[in-house]
C-alpha cells in the first residue's frame, strides 16, 4: 500500500482510488533504472580507488616501520646507525645504508651476493641491483628496482656519509628527529644507490610537489614511529625535524 494511505488516520475507512494517469510508464522506469545503474557504475570505481589508495598508503607505512626496525636492529648489533654510505680508500661512495641493513630485512642471502669492496653499480653487483625489493618501494609509485625511501642526510641530519652515527649524538630527541622520508617518483633512485635526501629535497616536498600520497608524505623518525608529514608543514618546522642537535623547539601538536 501507499505510504500516504498508511499515514492517513482515516485509512481504514478510505476507499482505495485507482492510480492516476501521472504514474510512471515502463519507458520512464527503464530510463530511471538506467540512470541509477550509471550512477552506481560511476561511483563504485571511485570507492574502490579510494580503498586501494588507503591500502597502499597503509602498506607504505608498514614498509617504513620495517625499515626503521631494521635500522634499530643494525644499531643494536653495531652500537651505531649505519653510515649513509660506505666509501673506498679514496672516499668514493660504495654502498648505501639500504644495502647494509639487508640482513635485518630477512635478505641475508641477497646481501651475501653483493661485493661490498666494489661500487654498488659495478658489474659484479648487477644481479643484486636488478632485484626488486617491495619494502623499499612505496606501492603507490609501483614496481621496480628503485626506491623512494631516502634517509635524512643533511649536514646536520641523521645519517652521515662514510661513518656511523651514534644515537647519543641525537640530542634533539629521537621522537622529533627525521630518519627516513619518502619522496615522489621523480626523486626515485636505484635502491642500492648511495643517494638520499638533503635539506633542499626535504623542503621541496610541499603542496606544489608531485607527492606519492594526497596531501603529504610518510616519514619515520629515529625512535621508529612513522608519521604523515603534511605538504603544508612549515619550512621552519621541517628544518627542526631534520636537525639532530640544533635545539629547535618542536611544538607538541605539529
TrEMBL record:
Keyword 4Fe-4S recorded: no
UniProt-recorded name of the protein: DUF1559 domain-containing protein
Cross-referenced NCBIfam families: pre_pil_HX9DG
Keyword terms, alphabetized: Membrane, Methylation, Transmembrane, Transmembrane helix
PANTHER family: GENERAL SECRETION PATHWAY PROTEIN G, TYPE II SECRETION SYSTEM PROTEIN H
Stored SUPFAM superfamilies: Pili subunits
Spans through the membrane: 24-46
Family matches, as InterPro entries: Bac_GSPG_pilin, DUF1559, Pilin-like, Pre_pil_HX9DG_C
GO BP annotation list: protein secretion by the type II secretion system
DUF1559 domain boundaries: 51-139
Pfam annotation, one family: SBP_bac_10
Any one of the GO CC terms: type II protein secretion system complex
Amino acid at each position: 500500500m501507499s505510504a500516504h494511505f498508511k499515514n492517513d488516520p482515516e485509512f481504514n475507512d478510505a476507499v482505495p482510488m485507482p492510480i492516476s494517469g501521472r504514474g510512471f510508464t515502463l519507458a520512464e522506469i527503464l530510463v530511471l533504472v538506467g540512470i541509477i545503474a550509471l550512477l552506481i557504475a560511476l561511483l563504485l570505481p571511485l570507492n574502490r580507488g579510494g580503498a586501494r589508495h588507503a591500502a597502499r598508503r597503509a602498506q607504505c607505512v608498514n614498509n617504513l616501520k620495517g625499515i626503521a626496525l631494521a635500522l634499530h636492529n643494525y644499531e643494536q648489533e653495531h652500537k651505531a646507525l649505519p653510515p649513509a654510505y660506505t666509501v673506498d680508500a679514496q672516499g668514493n661512495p660504495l654502498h648505501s645504508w639500504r644495502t647494509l641493513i639487508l640482513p635485518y630485512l630477512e635478505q641475508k642471502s641477497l646481501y651475501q651476493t653483493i661485493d661490498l669492496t666494489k661500487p654498488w653499480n659495478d658489474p659484479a653487483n648487477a644481479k643484486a641491483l636488478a632485484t626488486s625489493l617491495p619494502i623499499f618501494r612505496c606501492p603507490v609509485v609501483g614496481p621496480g628496482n628503485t626506491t623512494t625511501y631516502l634517509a635524512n642526510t643533511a649536514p646536520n641530519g641523521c645519517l652521515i656519509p662514510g661513518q656511523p652515527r651514534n644515537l647519543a649524538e641525537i640530542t634533539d630527541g629521537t621522537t622529533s628527529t627525521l630518519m627516513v622520508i619518502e619522496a615522489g617518483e621523480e626523486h626515485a633512485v636505484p635502491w642500492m644507490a648511495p643517494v638520499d635526501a638533503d635539506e633542499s629535497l626535504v623542503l621541496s616536498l610541499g603542496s606544489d610537489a608531485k607527492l606519492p600520497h594526497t596531501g603529504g608524505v610518510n616519514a619515520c623518525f629515529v625512535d621508529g614511529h612513522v608519521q604523515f608529514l603534511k605538504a603544508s608543514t612549515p619550512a621552519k618546522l621541517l628544518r627542526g625535524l631534520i636537525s639532530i642537535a640544533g635545539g629547535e623547539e618542536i611544538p607538541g601538536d605539529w
